[in-house]
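Title: Comparing notes on inverse folding

I've been comparing how different people in this forum approach sequence design from structure. To keep things fair, I'm posting one structure and asking everyone to reply with a full sequence. Here's the target:
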């Protein structure tokens, strides 16, 4: 997340960035996360968007972030399953 400082500078406090960084690091380290530069940056944006949209409880943010990551950034997921997860995530 620090790598994407241009996305959060002046918007979030350092402690908020640290918490987002921890969630980000945990989720991109999962074996199912399709780790490439595009996905990392897109997921960082999604996590920030969730936080700024009102998901400020970090337990809930972690869960929503995991759903978003699985639905959008996982490797080798059948399209039907990806769509179901996207619907679940959007309903949250």
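Reply #1:
Here's my take.
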């Amino acid at each position: 997340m620090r790598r994407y400082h241009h996305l959060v500078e002046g918007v979030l406090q350092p402690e908020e960035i640290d918490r987002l960084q921890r969630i980000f690091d945990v989720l991109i380290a999962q074996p199912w996360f399709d780790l490439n530069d595009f996905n990392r940056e897109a997921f960082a944006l999604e996590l920030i968007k969730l936080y700024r949209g009102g998901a400020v409880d970090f337990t809930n943010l972690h869960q929503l972030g995991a759903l978003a990551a699985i639905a959008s950034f996982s490797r080798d997921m059948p399209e039907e399953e990806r769509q179901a997860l996207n619907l679940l995530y959007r309903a949250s």
